[in-house]
Amino acid sequence: MTGPADATPDELGFVKGHGTRNDFVLVADPDGRLDLTPDLVRRLADRRSGVGADGVIRLAPSSSLPEGEAVLAEDPAAVWFMDYRNADGSVAEMCGNGVRVFAAFAELLDLADLADGSTLAVGTRAGVKRVVREPNGWYAVDMGPWTFPGGDDAVARGADAQVAVYGWRAARPALSVDLGNPHTVVALADAAELDALDLTVAPQVQPVPPHGTNVELVVPLGEEDTSDGRVGRVRMRVFERGVGETESCGTGTCAAALAVRAWAGPGAPDTWFVDVPGGTLRVRALPGGRVELTGPAVLAYAGRFP
Ligand SMILES: N[C@@H](CCC[C@H](N)C(=O)O)C(=O)O
Fold first, then answer.
1. Is the CB of 45 under 6 A from ligand 1?
2. pLDDT at res. 3
3. CA spacing 20 to 30 A to 247: which of 95, 183, 217, 289?
4. pLDDT band, very low/low/confident/very high, at 228 (cuts 50, 70, 90)
5. 182-187 and 172-178: which strand pairing?
6. 151-282: in CATH 3.10.310.10
7. 4-145+296-305 — its CATH code?
8. Which residues belong to CATH 3.10.310.10 in the chain?
9. Res. 2: pLDDT tops 60
């Protein structure tokens, strides 16, 4: 693969990557000098006139961003920052698929080597995320703390919001989950209903979330005993804030698994496999209110954008 550094001054070198087909344009900015304007993000992400992606990721020194100060105070090892933008040019706090692909990109750039089991601490607007590479090549990310913003009441009631999808007769109850970025999870009756959804139109959420939300539509598929213990399975489609329907959303799979686990009640498994249109991700509820996300990261090709 051609390195992204061999672009001329009039070009922007990039690498195209994806995690379970949630795709990204990755740009290396080791000096922290690139002005990633919303217009440039939209042009790069455009699937007809640009490279095409759900999001754009800039790798920059944490010390070059105002948000980097908190990150370096949390962990001085988090010298590289994942500056994440949605395809519409908006800034997002976190991207679970993106942070795995970011780790693979950092390895490509020789800024990290995870082959020996080392951990890469990545700065994000939602704090430091720690990534390791498993022997099978999947990347496991400690996604840090998560919450149900509606608190114990919402969990007891199973909902703190209502979601209306285009074509439905009535809104349905949903649970808000905070992964550093906002999510709203709604359960459907079965896979046929999930497959039939029209997600070309944004779902409406009430009360309207102040900073918008990603909406996960899920079908719990049950639990089973495996050699690694009891695990649960969920199918999911997602409508991402700032993008539209995507084939996967890492933070969204965490939100989906955590909501379904809460709905299942005490004794529900900590480990969940979440099937999305782009593949399967593993989510593990960790002690201390943290969550781990594990899945593939693929660097597909490099190019230069004029
Ligand atoms: N696809 C990402 C989430 C990207 C950000 C999201 N659209 C937002 O605005 O919060 C993931 O894998 O987590």
1. no
2. 44
3. 289
4. confident
5. antiparallel
6. yes
7. 3.10.310.10
8. 4-145+296-305, 151-282
9. no
Asked whether 96 lines ligand 1 (CB < 6 A), one says yes
| Residue from 26, 82, 95, 187 carrying the catalytic annotation | 95
Cβ 57 under 6 angstroms from ligand 1:
no
Is the peptide bond prior to 207 cis by the omega test (within 30 degrees of 0)?
yes
CB atoms within 10 A of CB 152: 8
Residue 230 Cα to ligand 1 middle (Å): 28
Phi and psi torsions of 253, nearest 5°: -70, -35
Residue 254 designated active-site: no
**Would you call 95 a catalytic residue per the annotation?**
yes
pLDDT tens column, 260-283: 999 999 999 999 999 999 999 999
Q: What would the two tokens of residue 146 be? A: 């998560």
**What's the mean pLDDT in 22-36?**
97
Predicted ipTM? Answer: 0.99
85 lines ligand 1 (CB under 6 A): no
Angle between helix axes 96-108 and 250-264 (nearest 10 degrees) is 140
This prediction's pTM: 0.97
